[in-house]
Design brief:
Layout (H helix, E strand, L loop, with lengths): L1 H27 L10 H11 L6 E4 L7 E3 L4 E4 L1 H5 L3 H18 L3 H29 L3 H38 L5 H43 L1
Parallel strand pairs: 1-3
Antiparallel strand pairs: 2-3
Helix pairs in contact: 1-7, 2-4, 4-6, 4-7, 5-6, 6-7
Length: about 230
């Protein structure tokens, strides 16, 4: 029964976070911002205000596919945010510009996250192979190797949290100081950013729980072999 509850938690928590961010986005994508600027215009103004004239703003593809690409120095906004004049498009466009500002200022946690990308990719793709073989054949050494690889992927997700929260704080500072939203709109803009942050919090929490579960399995396996 305990395992069933555990698996329900690790499946339902991310789904709840995704539902929350989509619901919040849809709600505030219907509320126009007072400056009536599109997300693309907001992004360009924030970038220019911070001297980032070399960072491009492009329209991407897919629902909520917004991101900053540090390799090409480009903020890519999903069509609804690139063209939209809403509170949601303003908040998300400014958030992605927050990442561009972090990159330009060599923000410590962002640099650390970038350095972890190769190891995290290997960990997320390869760790479960070692874990499953280790558990199935009762080979604690392979299980431990899988846990180590998975720990790198979990660390990446944990480090993502301060990066995302910092980008949101920078976003709010920018849209307020530049007059892109009025005081009464701040609360709604922050709701959009907080809902988006929930997806990262949920992913990190589930990853940590799964890592702890595997550590307990490894500990139990070693005890039974003594």
């Amino acid at each position: 029964m305990g395992f069933l509850i555990y698996f329900l938690i690790i499946m339902l928590v991310p789904l709840w976070a995704q539902f929350r961010v989509k619901g919040t986005f849809v709600k505030y994508s219907r509320v126009a911002n007072s400056s009536y600027r599109t997300g693309a215009e907001v992004a360009r103004e924030v970038l220019n205000a911070n001297g980032l004239f070399n960072v491009g703003v492009e329209e991407g593809r897919g629902f909520l596919s917004d991101h900053y690409d540090p390799r090409t120095k480009t903020v890519r906004l999903s069509p609804e945010n690139f063209r939209g004049h809403s509170i949601a498009s303003t908040a998300i466009a400014a958030h992605e510009c927050g990442h561009a500002i972090q990159d330009a200022q060599r923000y410590t946690f962002l640099r650390f996250r970038h350095a972890l990308v190769p190891v995290a990719n290997i960990g997320s793709n390869f760790s479960w192979v070692l874990v499953l073989i280790g558990i199935f054949f009762q080979m604690s050494g392979l299980l431990l190797a899988g846990i180590v690889f998975m720990a790198a992927a979990v660390l990446f997700q944990v480090i993502t949290l301060p990066v995302e929260f910092n980008a949101s704080n920078r976003a709010m500072d920018q849209v307020v100081s530049l007059g892109l939203i009025r005081n009464e709109e701040e609360r709604n803009a922050r709701k959009v950013l907080n809902a988006a942050a929930l997806t990262y919090v949920a992913a990190a929490a589930v990853a940590v729980l799964e890592l702890l579960r595997l550590v307990l399995i490894f500990t139990g396996m070693n005890r039974s072999n003594e």
